[in-house]
Specification:
Strands 2-3-1-4 form a four-stranded antiparallel sheet, with helices on both faces. Strand 2 and strand 3 form a beta hairpin. About 45% of the residues lie in helices and about 10% in strands. The protein has about 325 residues and is an alpha+beta fold. The longest helix has 20 residues. The two termini are about 35 Å apart.
Length: about 325
Amino acid sequence: MPRPRRSQVSVEDTPMYHCCSRVVRRAFLCGDDMFSGKNYDHRRAWVEAQLLKLAEVFAIDVAAFAVMSNHLHVVLRIDIYQANSWSDVEVISYWHQLFKGTDITQKFAQGETLEDYEQLQLSHMVALYRSRLSDISWFMRCLNEPIARQANQEDNCTGRFWEGRFKSQALLDEAAVLACMAYVDLNPIRAKMASTPEQSDHTSIQLRIQAALKGEQPNSLLPFIGNERKNQPKGIAFSVQNYLELVDDTGRIIRNDKRGAISANSAKLLTRLNIPQDNWLKLTTEFGKLFHGPVGTLQELTRYCEHLEKRRRHFVSCCQHLKAS
């Protein structure tokens, strides 16, 4: 039986989550439809544009994403501190970028004076909106619903476009985060939709490579910030150059027509994560099969399950791939 989302998301344990949504209709309604002969690849651009727009509105950062032909992968980071730091004006402003709000929130946004009872209702709405703007379920809802409406309008039909529930996995440590990001970024390579990461359209790795060529990082994605340090900014505690090299090395090994090997820099990164090279290849090619729940070392998984009062630790055997024996 599917678990409620509240029993899967625990910001106290980790802010990082891997989410996946799948198209429910017949195959490849976001790519080539073999039945009608039509190409729907432009819908992948819809998904990417909406995803990056939401990253600017929600207190949720996008670490990695890949928009495939019939499904979507995204790695998200909940920034509860950012949400709590917003003023009431900022919360209402962000919410109005997505929804109309109420008559009271519209009055407040226009600078009109509110009655006492309206002020009380406004405080309630601000608290509610602040919570929703740091909620993964609302993020995925605001991502999927507009795409479904556009697709239905284009197809001149009604009904579901996405499956009713999206998959959500807690990523409990930095090894799980990096392995999941690489798995997501290499999706087009494994599916033979692209030959190289830089040719992988509608993926975070393509955006990172394009920005890296200019000596920058994409503003729309959670940045890499290098090694951990005091008073460090928000981001992923690895070097972006090392990550791009690791993904490129792994992609070359995955492809049968390329001679590939883990470079010295990539090997150092895997050593820091305590992941053997053979395990790394298994993680980046079979991550979706290995893990159907929270991902992390046995120690982190145990702590997560105890905090959420889960009686069983599912997929404990898969934890061995995230740590050298």
